[in-house]
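Submission checklist for the structure archive. All mandatory fields must be present; incomplete records are returned to the submitter.

[x] Identifier: Endolytic murein transglycosylase
[x] Organism: Devosia soli
[x] Residue count: 373
[x] Sequence attached
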Amino acid sequence: MNERRKRRRRSSNGLVDVLNALLTLLVIGLVVVGGGFLFVASQYYGDGPLPEERVFRVETGNALSTTASRLEEQGFISNALIFSQFGSRVAENTTVKAGDFTIPAHASMSEILNELTTGTPIRYAVTIPEGWTSWQVVQRVNADDRLTGTIDTLPPEGSILPGSYDYIPGDTRQSVIDRMQAAMTTALNEVWEGREADLPLESPAQLLILASIVERETGVPEERPQVAAVFVNRLREGMRLQSDPTIIYGITKGQSQLERGLRRSEIQEETPYNTYQIDGLPPTPIANPGIDALEAVAHPDDHNYLYFVAKGASPRDGHVFAETYAEHQENVARYREIERQSAEQAAQEAEAARQALEAEEAQQATDAQGTGQ
């Protein structure tokens, strides 16, 4: 009997020992897991290793794991695995955006992941002014070293809608040009659909050509509908457009500035772009018109003017308009006088500047002699 009791006590003690051992292992496991969790959490939420503010670029198509590796390689974070694995379990959003992001000094992994998923990338854009030629557009796009690739074919004149186009560094130059062209296609179709019904234009292409001429004829935005109406009136009357910018385009093909006045021989030469010598419109646009120029041609002012000439020496002075050739000649005479006076004033200012420079040089020479130099 005593032996049985002893065996039962030993058996009970053995079971207790096993349970104690298991409980000890469980506690140790919990401590290890908890400690590991605390370590990982401290790494994820604690200050990061970045010593100063820097820009990090997320390439188009990069997943969270790829982004994490690149962040670690570039010194933004200390551990890519914690960033991707722990971050994917605790963050609300783990889809990173493409683009450049400003990361502040000592930003935590949590802060960096939040910036890359919900922040706004640094804005990069190519801006194309109204009235630029396609050649000028390509020069500007090529000059942006954040873009990649080459533009193999010069875009057709007039196929690009001026404006500001955002892009992500690493985008191809051709993709930016494609978006500019798509924007023009959309805008031109919409303007054509909403045009005045009685315009002497047969197609969206003709509207585009005339809008490019209007764009190049005036530097005053408010004048576009007036200028457009003059050309529309001329087309209705069967008169030639007689637009200087069309002749200039025929000479330069939009790839340079003429930097001088037109010669009489150039005005008299019959070329496809010389609207002094040809009837109707030139064969292509002479620039890339903006949306306002397109709308001006689609909805020109209602007036009877057939002529216009510059009001002053500066393009910002605008134009004066006339219904008859006699009125126009008077306006031209006034403009010629303004031109003459402006040339005289420019010559006087140049002479005054020359004399001032000579006086300054003479004074410097006198000062040098006085100091024995």
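[x] Structure attached
Curator remark: Residues 26-34 have pLDDT under 50 and may be disordered. The longest helix spans residues 325-370.
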